[in-house]
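Illustration 12: Acetyl-coenzyme A carboxylase carboxyl transferase subunit beta.
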Amino acid sequence: MTTVWRGVNVAIKDFFQKKRKYATIPSEQTKREIPEGIMSKCPKCGTIQYSKEVGKNLKVCTSCGFHNRLNAIERIEFTLDEGRIFEYDSDMVSEDPLEFPDYVNKLAKSMESTGLRDAVVTGEGTIGGFPVVVAVMSFDFFGGTLGSVVGEKITRAIETATQKRYPLIVFSTSGGARTQESILSLMQMAKTSAALAKFGDNGGLFISVITDPTYGGVSASFAMLGDIILAEPGARFGFAGPIVIEQTIRQKLPEEFQTAEFNQKHGQVDKVVHRKDMRATLTKLLELHTVPSTKEAIANG
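Figure caption equivalent — predicted structure in token form:
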């Protein structure tokens, strides 16, 4: 009997000696075998998804519908017919009129990382076959800030739309006025607004599409002057951000404060449009407000 128990004890002892006590941690080499960017995590719901699948879904989370930010090039590809645009003023770049410290270097880094010259791309194309002039802002370039070049390009786009009698569509996203250009940046608010006033006096149609985020001088000027104002779901916009407002009034704001849905309830937005429906919605609006002969003239060259 004793011999049997000894045998069992030896077997149990061998089992625990051979059993690993710790999980194997992948080495750095193993980690590098997984291609960077193949997976992405939704900022809202935390779901891990294939980046390609999210891209196919117009960069909208397939789980919760969260709208990830688009840069100007992506938005043009998703919105204009065949993703094609005849670009205006592509060679226009910002200078450093106030000799602001490190401004030139920051501009150079933004150009290199985004492939853009500044925070907006303007030009003309078609949506649903209807000719339009568009201005598409890009938050990844210097936070989409409103500087002299951004204001000038948008103003020129408005003037071209006035001359050609094309509808104007502006996709806004911005952190506000560009500090490094001071008063020259703030002047763009008045300049773009004045151009829009002339455009409106000539019977032009201006559709403003607000995307996340849109704050400061952009929201206080052209972004909120549209004949029709659309916004993407969850897009936050206003003049000052919620943190600044809370610190000023010393009150807690509602969680949904300044979202597209909140602003729609309070009369600041005409319609909140899912990204997958944006092209169709814009096409319908253009169809309702564009003279039929204009589309026919474009189709016939």
